[in-house]
Write a structure and sequence with these properties.
This protein is mainly β. The chain folds into three domains: 172 residues, Jelly Rolls, CATH 2.60.120; 148 residues, Jelly Rolls (Sandwich); 85 residues, Cupredoxins -  blue copper proteins (Immunoglobulin-like), CATH 2.60.40.420. It has two helices and 32 strands. The radius of gyration is 22 Å and the shape is globular. The two termini are 44 Å apart. Bound molecules: copper (II) ion. The site of copper (II) ion has 5 residues, from loops.
Length: 425
């Protein structure tokens, strides 16, 4: 079902919070999603309506966490919040006219993305005097991805805490979502990791500003292997660079490369000027000495519109140096069956790669043909070069193996059930 239709079907469920009337001041509101099942060793992704304040006001702060059905916080070792994105349904997004769903289908979903949080636990804190306007009649949706490191199915909720201002006029901000793979529910790309000592690789995305204003706050999202995430005004220089802090220990079993435990953000009441017509460029830089698959480069900025006379460049704080321990992702299930030599393709069906052990010659192009009732993907775990397919239930994905060695592959959505070994001679 299309995302939009699904959201509107659920609309009845959303109107259950926050009666009460507007009185001036800042309130702390604690809201929760409906329960979400996360199957053992698997990933739960989805879109659903999110309860929202039922009176007009402004969001000035927002953060999210995973709790169990009793309301107790759930440790990352149990269920990891990969990410949650909050969006206002039916409102056009600043940088994207329609967001693809998790299967890559173009969707009629128009929604304004206004906040996201991942392993770095970005918390929105707008500078004093600024707020994200919200009407009591607005509808919020959330898009989430959770990972269960347990042998049992877990039932959790996403709890989010808002600071909400009513009865006052604040300077409104518009959320500006910058993303090197914009307009996707799962905006990932992969780094091969074949660049040699100290190599990095960068991806960029440009936004031509339709209006003038000042960015008053922002935060970044990178995955494992991230070096920096910069947003610049191409005529003036850097507006802000977000840097990761490392140190998360990935819970066992290792199912993905750990992300940063923190990313720097900024909140600047004076704001950082951009003029209508300026090009704002996002640059996500990753280490290319090792593979890093299914990574992201996203910055969310908050714009107060209005005339500005000139622009400037800004230097950004760097966090204390930290290092990520290189992790190796092991397969949770040993690929089985006879070795299939020099085949060109295999079928990916529900919960199995048809050919689990494959031997190829260097230079061969191999194709995965997806025939599932649910989404699957092929994702690099270890080997000479990183790659990953989008998640799909039909269609094909091809990859040319240009480096000899042993590639351990799996489906990142079903890591305990779907694995494959490809040996390239
Ligand atoms: Cu799968």
């Amino acid at each position: 079902m299309r995302l939009l239709a699904r959201l509107f079907l659920l609309a009845g469920l959303a109107a259950l919070v926050l009666p009460g009337q507007a009185s001036a001041g800042t309130k702390t509101l604690v809201l929760e999603s409906a329960p979400i099942n996360v199957t053992a060793f698997e990933v739960a992704r989805g879109v659903r309506l999110a309860p929202s304040p039922q009176v007009d006001g402004y969001v000035v702060g927002l953060s999210a966490e995973v709790v169990d059905i009793l309301g107790n916080p759930v440790a990352m070792e149990d269920v990891m919040l990969h990410h949650v994105v909050f969006a206002k349904v039916g409102v056009p997004d600043y940088t994207c006219s329609g967001i693809e769903d998790y299967s890559g289908n173009a969707s009629a979903l128009r929604a304004e993305r206004f906040y996201a949080e991942g392993e770095e636990h970005f918390a929105l804190n707008l500078p004093d005097g600024y707020g994200y306007p919200n009407r009591g009649s607005d509808t919020w949706g959330m898009l989430y991805m959770l990972m269960n490191h347990h042998r049992q199915t877990m039932v959790v909720r996403i709890r989010y805490t808002l600071r909400y201002v009513t009865g006052e006029l604040l300077t409104p901000v518009k959320p500006v979502w910058m993303d090197v793979e914009n307009c996707k529910a799962d905006p990932v790309f992969s780094v091969a990791g074949t660049g040699g000592p100290d190599a990095t690789v960068s991806r960029t995305a440009d936004l031509r500003m339709p209006e003038s204003g000042r960015f008053v706050a922002g935060g970044g999202h990178l995955h494992g292997g991230g070096v920096s995430l910069d947003v610049s005004n191409t005529s003036c220089g850097s507006l802000f660079t977000s840097y990761p802090t490392w140190g998360l220990v990935e819970p066992l079993p290792v199912m993905h490369e750990p992300g940063p435990m923190h990313m720097t953000g900024f909140a600047d009441p004076a704001g950082r000027a951009v003029r209508a017509g300026d090009t704002v460029r996002l640059t996500a830089t990753y280490d290319d000495t090792r593979p890093h698959v299914r990574v992201m480069g996203i910055m969310i900025l908050y714009l107060a519109t209005g005339q500005v006379s000139s622009c400037a460049s800004y230097s950004s704080e760097t966090p204390p140096t930290s290092k990520a321990d290189p992790v190796t992702i092991g397969l949770l299930m040993r690929p089985a069956g006879r070795i299939r030599r020099d085949i060109r393709s295999t079928v990916v069906r529900d919960y199995a790669f048809a050919a689990q052990r494959v031997s190829l010659r260097r230079g061969a192009t191999f194709t995965w043909r997806f025939r599932g009732g649910v989404d699957h993907d092929v994702t690099f775990a270890s080997g000479p070069a990183g790659f990953a397919s989008p998640s799909m239930r039909s269609g094909t994905f091809s990859y040319r193996f240009t480096r000899r060695g042993t590639y351990r592959l799996f489906c990142s959505l079903h890591p305990a059930r779907m694995t494959q070994l490809v040996v390239v001679h």
